[in-house]
Amino acid sequence: MADHLAVNRRLWDRYAELHATSAWYDVEGFLAGRSSLKSIEREEMGCVRGRSLLHLQCHFGLDTLSWAREGALVTGVDFSTVAVGLARSLAAEANLEATFICADILSLPAEPAMRYDIVFTSYGVISWLADLDRWATVIAAYLKPSGIFYMVEFHPLVFAMDDHGERFAYPYCATGEALEFRQDGSYASKAEPLMSREWPHDLGEVVSALTRSGLRIDFLHEFPYGTYPYPPYLVEEAPDRYVWPDLRLAIPVLFSLKATAC
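and the corresponding structure tokens:
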């Protein structure tokens, strides 16, 4: 597992360098006042003003800081030292209050020094985690009583498809085994080849891990569109709305989930 973590940390350290200057992330637009948050999470999360929010796998902090602009008291966690350094610099440049912690979220202390009103995570996160039971336990531990966990994520069906969205090429159901990929840069920026190790997690595994941790599922929504031009075979139907090339196919691209600490 330490080897998997080292491989993926090297990848995300490099991604952080690439993404901070990419058009995809548009840091200049963020500094000018643009929010990086999408309509799904903003509408389903509702008002966060005055509430403490822990953002897991926050990358270099754009969404974390966008929640700060919404009035949340934010803490972001990521395992990339490069990403966390960039997040801290970005917070200072944007004059926003935020705390950023460099840590593997599966290794966070079981007894936290602080609990939060909200734990949040989004878009392309769970495939980097080997153990969803441990992930769910961390989420439950860091929530206040009646606190909420919210996630919006690419649907596991998307990760099971090939690069053209034409056939199944990878497991849909969780196998417990890592898949190894050679990445030519990232979804946001081309670069030298990099190795990654990722895990398939089906929707049932996500829900079951969270319920085993003691959380109550409030809703699970599936969306036949994405909010990003990813996977790249999706076609833009409207701003921030990307669908399967065959528009007759109501196949999910994203799912969202909200759960409450009992």
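(Above: one complete record from the training split.) Residues 2-19 form the longest helix (18 residues).
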